[in-house]
Automatic annotation (TrEMBL):
PANTHER family: AB HYDROLASE-1 DOMAIN-CONTAINING PROTEIN (PTHR42977:SF3), HYDROLASE-RELATED (PTHR42977). It comes from Sessilibacter corallicola. Residues 53-298 form the AB hydrolase-1 domain. Residues 1-23 form the signal peptide. The lineage of its organism: Bacteria, Pseudomonadati, Pseudomonadota, Gammaproteobacteria, Cellvibrionales. It holds the Pfam family Abhydrolase_1. Keywords: Hydrolase, Signal. This is Alpha/beta hydrolase.
Amino acid sequence: MSKCTTPLRFLLTVLIFVSAANAQALSGDVRYGTEKVDGQEIFFREAGDPSNPAIVLLHGFPSSSHMYRELLASLSDDYYLIAPDYPGFGNSSFPSKEEFTYTFDNLAKVVNTFLEKKGVKKYSIMMQDYGAPIGFRIAAANPERVQSIITQNGNAYEVGINKDSWAPIIQYWSTPTKELGAIIEKNVYSADAMKWQYTHGTRNPESILPDNWILDYANISRPGQTEIQLALFYDYQNNVKLYPQWQAYLRKEQPPVLVVWGKNDAFFPESGAEAFKKDVKDIDYNILNTGHFALEEDHAIISEKIRHFLAKRKIK
């Protein structure tokens, strides 16, 4: 009997160590993968135990799931987080306009199918910029799946669009000429424009990670990107037309909404955040002194806001 004690103890120690290591890897480490959706390879980042409450992270333009890297690390102890790249963005497939129709309807369809294939059935949605028209399409079509909405400069109201900064794109909706497309390309797609989107309105521009705009500029410089991004700019007018439907969804379904909004955003001003108050009863409202990509400067604050918001509402 005594001869077996030491090996058994050793075995138990090894099993406990391995189990602990696996649990730590599952909850703490960010994992990367791809999922085949309608012929496209959709890249994603995920972290945390899939049995925990899920948060779907939907990125904006011109970014990718890279923008959520801090949240993936900081919230994975209590939540399961998953952040896909849309077709044409980040590390996902980049089909041509002939192979894939670049509209927000189609992007939302791909993301919804992706979530179904991954088995993510109930979740909170965090949306930023382009993530809002994609997330609201999914939420309005599947209200029973959405446990809450977290909006970080994810707009759903006309008052939330800065008409001055949007002027060339709004004009492009009615007159999609090559000349106007060239103006948009110069003002939006250049390396300086990429950097400006990340640093404008921040308290400390020198603290913003340059990898953000370097990666985005590398992606948007690929042949064919100009055309697909202009197609999405042109289609954005259909998002504005759907705003009343998304507002009706909020009034009817009343999902809890956490607002964490950079007030110095040149594209989506604070009035867009304020507008949620008229349609949502359960709202946690936070305006931050930063820019369009608020996570770059205030990820620690936003992380704690999310944790408190979800825990208070006992979202499981």
